[in-house]
Amino acid sequence: MKKRTPIILVNSLDVERGGITRASIKRANMLSQHNKNVMIITFAYQQYFNKIIQKLYDKNILSKHVKVINFFEEMQLMKKKTKAKKQLVKEKGYTVFPVENRKKEPSYRYYKNGLYIMYKRFNAEGCIKFIDYMDETGKRVRREEYNENGILARTRHMDNTNNKPRFDQYFDTSGNCIFSVYVNPKSDNEGRVVRFIHQPKEFTSLSKCQQEWLESVLQRIKYPVVSSELRKFTPMLANVQHKNIKKIEVIHSSHLQKPFNDNSMIKPAYQSLFKELASNFDYIVFLTNEQKQDVEKVYGANSNFRVIPHSTSIKEERKTKNTLNYNPYLAVTLARLHEVKRLEEAIHAFRLVVDKLPKAQYYIYGNGNSKEELQALIKNLKLQNNVFLKSYTNSPQTTYRNAACSILTSRQEGFAMVITESMAVGTPVISYNIKYGPKDIITDGIDGHLVEDGSRQALAKKIIDVMENEKYRKNLSTNALKVKKTFSEKRYNRNWLELYL
């Protein structure tokens, strides 16, 4: 029997992680119980990559039997362990001013002869994190970034019009530039790459350079089974040449464009996948039957299509007799603070909830770039005493258990693990009926609620019903627990093992 090596391609890993990363880690951990050679390959530059991976191991988020390698770390030869280099704050000839409110990561401005020359930030351990260099007008022209050991890893040269990177240099531990990347300062997309190590070579894009590197990694593995978790990796994996490779494409998100409910409006990356590249993959995995059926309506049936939903991994159930151990006037959402999650819909709906139930509260857990807009909306709707933006939580089970219900108002999802995670501890979910996920998981009025997409009034009414009627909420809670059987670990493991091993 061939000994397969499961390999998962993701952009990056982190302790505070989104749905795709969490799903990839979960699968890698499961596979590591059946195969000692499991690998995750990441492609994004992360300044503290080794520190992040070690923290994932230490917190038992990622199995220590799963090996993680990163494109930039491998190219930069940063594997060699070196003692952390600490740099002094003071510099001869400069006047130094500390930056307020930077206690966790001390930062300083450096002046010389009246000119603002440098800005330095240190990490909590006292190692330099980055240095910004200014021109004579105080505009940033260059940033030097250092790894967790205080070794220069990347220099970013800034565009003089919008203060964004337009050219990056990457260095090895000896300070030699190993490759350069041209960056579009308007889109942040990486363009032409020049590599100076091994056999010096120019590439038209970073993805082409990464594909060549990926092939070199896979050539060292006799029987690789590789899954792509993001569409940016689809062409890369499709074009990889290896005589013994098995390729898997995993669809984590909706393939539809706005308004995300018209089956004829398909995102270009998915058109390319289903029209041109599908035959390059041994399996294409969907998370819901609904999405698979929608794709088949357009492109026809494919014997390589599979449906493998996420499983519920919470072991302990909340017993019916303990259903009062929650706040009957609390609703929660765990999500990125991002426009695709449409949290403003939930906040507007909650204004209607508070009008009926003044003591109702809504906690939103997560980080993201929409925080300021959401905070402004909360203030505008006069909900400062009812709606609270909280940071990312590492205790989702406890968070859900404390609430009467959870809310989902996303524009689109691939599956929405937050639904099964909430239901698995007996907390019913009230969700907009979007593509994809809610309809495959929630039975309306039995274990939760599906409401018309965009109907804030309907959303508010169901939240109020759950908060006001303890007996009704108890019935939803009891039925919600059945999600653990529907989306069982056993079935999930069996389905994935059939593809990988």
Automatic annotation (TrEMBL):
InterPro entries: Glyco_trans_1, Glyco_trans_A_1. It comes from the Bacteria. Residues 12-177 form the Glycosyl transferase domain. Coiled coil: none annotated. Residues 315-482 form the Glycosyl transferase family domain. This is Glycosyltransferase. It comes from Virgibacillus kapii.
